[in-house]
Amino acid sequence: MLKPETINQQSKLAQYSRTGEKQDLILSNPQHVFQYRRLVFYVVLGIMQQAFPIAQKAIGIESFKALVNEFFNSHNCKTPQVWKLPLEFCNWFKTSNQVDLNPSYLSELLYFEWLEIEVHTQKDTSTEGLMPFQGNAISSLRLNPYLKSINLNYPYHKFLPEEWLSQKAEYPMVIYRGVSDFKVHFMAVSKFGLGVIQFLLQTENLTLGEFLEILTQQNNEAQSENLQKQVLTFFNQLSHKGILFEASK
Amino acid sequence: MTFLFMVKGVGIGFRRDIADEIIGMVNPSPNFIELAPENWIDMGGYWRAKLDEAAEKYPISLHGLSLSIGSPDELDFDFLKKIKAFIKQYDIKIYSEHLSYSKCDNAHLYDLLPIPFTQDAVIHIAERIKVVQDYLEMPLAIENVSYYTAVAAEMKEHEFISEIVNKSNCNLLLDVNNIYVNAFNHGYNTKDFINNLPLEKVSYIHMAGHEKVADDLIIDTHGEAIIDPVYELLKWVYPKLNNSPVLLERDFNFPEINELKRELTQLHKITNQEEVDA
Ligand SMILES: [Fe+2]
Question: Residue A138 gets which letter from DSSP?
Answer without folding.
Answer: T
